[in-house]
Amino acid sequence: MVDVIAALTLVPARELSERVSMAAAIAAIQETLRSGFDPEYDLPRTIEDVPGGQLLLMPAAVGGAVGQKLASVAPGNPARGLERIQAVYVLLDGDTLTPTALIDGTALTSLRTPAVSAAAADPLARPDAGDLVIFGSGPQAVRHVEAIAAIRPLRTVRMIGRDDTRARAAVEAARAFAPDADLAVGTAADVRSADLIVCATTASTPLFPAALVRDDATIIAIGSHEPDRTELDPALLGRSQVVVESRRVARTEAGDVIGAIAAGMLSPADLITMHELFTGAVAPATDRPRIVKTCGMGWQDLAVARLAV
Q: What is the average per-residue pLDDT within 287-300?
């Protein structure tokens, strides 16, 4: 009998960052989408409520590879000094389904989430975009500076958080990824001058008025996969080109999309999928804001996890 555990390649958090760069992760996401893969047909994930939060089971089978992530979402963890989202990832042989690698899923999520954001924002953002505003001061906020810096030279970065001390710490952590940019703690008023906006919070109400957003701005909203939480003003979705991973996921999990549809500001038919964007079926808008709204899907983890081995 084969000892499956002994045969596994173990990829801890530090080693994942050594094996897979942000630029490589972004490229892997884009290549998966350009190859014709349609996230609409990704294997569905399961979300179960448990004491303390949620469990997420996220399988995927793409391009001959198979993987499974087990993630937990514990809203109380930041107060304990722990990550809100923790996970382990199992990579399997595509033919035999034998487990081949065990990867730190928390580190994988921390890498692939901003990689997906940057991958989708790349064809949408203006070539000269470089003034970034980020709502949030956690690990995802910092890593989104890294990801956006991988696709555009950043001139200014303003990071906005509810806790000023954490926001200042996030600014200092982000300096490593944008050493030539002007980084500082900001306010919502900075949205007026931003051509790149990232929302990486757990907010349940809009973070800023739609009227502040320029017509040439690209907005990324990653905060939640819960249908009752929103980071964006429904009026902003109504005046923007809205790009989602899949219509199925967006209409059941993306609170920003669900809220805008309920408010009559957006129609399901208005949604653009990443598949349509990357296969050229729909061109990026040039006369209005562009929004990327993600909830996280299994194919994204698998595309990046494959690079680790």
A: 97
Domain 4-110+300-308 has CATH 1.10.10.10: no
Which of 1-5, 85-89, 113-117, 201-205 tops mean pLDDT?
113-117
Instruction: Give the C-alpha separation, 258 to 34, whole Å.
Output: 27
What CA–CA distance (Å, rounded) separates 307 from 217?
Answer: 32
Cβ-based neighbours of 127, under 8 Å, separated by 6 or more = none
Long-range contacts of 185-188 (CB under 8 A, 24+ apart): 185/158, 185/159, 185/160, 185/161, 186/133, 186/158, 186/159, 186/160, 187/158, 187/160, 188/160, 188/212
The per-residue pLDDT of the chain, averaged, comes to 95
pLDDT at 1: 56
Structure tokens, 81: 């000094």
- The C-alpha atoms of residue 293 and residue 297 are separated, in whole angstroms, by 12
Domain map (residue ranges) of the chain: 4-110+300-308, 116-296
The pTM of the full predicted model, rounded to 2 decimals, is 0.94
pLDDT surpasses 90 at 283: yes
Residue 11 in tokens: 């990829």
N-terminal to C-terminal alpha carbon distance within the chain: 24
Sign of CA dihedral 76, 80, 83, 89: negative
Q: Contact 40/246 with Cβ under 8 angstroms? A: yes
CATH architecture of 116-296: 3-Layer(aba) Sandwich (3.40)
